[in-house]
Every structure is written in structure tokens, then in C-alpha cells.
Fold:
Amino acid sequence: MTTHHLSLEHLVRPPVTSAVKAPAVFLFHGYGSNEEDLFSFAPELPGELCVISARAPHSLPPYGFAWYHIDFDANFGKWSDTAQARESVGKMVHFIEEAIDAYALDHTRITLLGFSQGTVLSFALALSYPNMIRNVVGLSGYIDENILVDGYQDKDHRHLKMYVSHGQFDPVIPVSWATKTPPILERLGIPYTFEEFPTGHGVSRENFYAMSAWLNQHF
Structure:
């Protein structure tokens, strides 16, 4: 499968099957990383899936990229650019729509898989535009209600399914932030699996296998 020139730089692993419309998983990396990071998961993901790993639009010297700016101020703590985050959600929506056409994907079987900042925006995209998404795999992130579209809670989210995991010793995004996710999902009627692992800000082998098993059952 040829990689098309779309609005976001990306890598593609085509499905092993020749289905007319393939289900797909979109990978969204964390702050300061790039599209090659989560793409290392691709060989272990279900072969029926088209795997697309996107690069965030904002350059973060020397070698990384970000979906939105984070200011680590010693006096005021961590501050996120909410407007930029919302703008990136819009870019992700547009990119997914482009990719569905370019790679002949099944628009009813779209999964988002994010890590850290990529998870924050994957949650925001799915909760804001639930008609576009089937599943979300959210690793080491949280729901930031400040970047969701107005009236998101009035939309029908019941068809969504989510796998959420977090490291118990995460020094970047505290696990206490992640534990606020299940009550929001319950309020919206979204079925979910939530798991904690004895690790930091990363994906342990145990976490990866648990996530893969869930994805195999739901894609």
C-alpha cells in the first residue's frame, strides 16, 4: 500500500487481508515524540487492521513533535494550550477523513490508540465526534473536558468502547488524573476496561499484552 500525501505526516502498515474496506487503527504519539514511536506496535497488532501512525503538527526541537504546547513553569506549574489542543483535534478529524478515502477504510470500524498527549486528544476526538469512532485505546492519559466540544454530553456515545490503562507510579501524568476517567465514561454510557499497572509513564509488556488482547476482541 502506497503512503499518500495527506495533511499529517504518517506511516502505514497495510492489512494482511485484501478486504474491500479494511478496519483501521490510528496511532497518536505523546508529547515530544513522533510517528515512529507507537508504530513499533504495528507488527503485534491484528493483521486485519490497517495501522496508521500520525505525526503531530507542531515541531518540538530538537527532534520531536507535539499536538499542543505544554509550558513547564516552575512558579505556575504545568500549563497546556487549550486552543491549540482543540485545533489539533480538528486536524486529527480531517486527517482521519482523508485517510478513510485514501486507503479505502471501513469508516464504521475506526479505532484510536493514543499514548499520553495522544491519549488526551483521542479521548477528546471520540467524545466530541462519537459518530466517527468505534473504539479508543487510551494509554497513560486522561480526559480533559476543557478541550471537548460544547454539548458533547448530549451526543450518543453508547456504541463506543474504550480500553484505558495507566502506570501506578507515573511521574508525568498522575494516576489520580486517570482515575477520573471511568466516572465520565459511566455517565456517558460508554463500556470500558480500566487497568493500572506497576510502572511509570510508559507501556509495560504486561500492559501491552492486555491492550492487544482487548483490541483483538473489539476491532
Notes: The CA atoms of residues 86 and 147 lie 6 Å apart. The helical segments are 35-39, 82-102, 117-128, 175-178, 181-188, 205-218. The first strand starts at residue 10 and ends at 13. DSSP finds six helices and eleven strands in the chain.
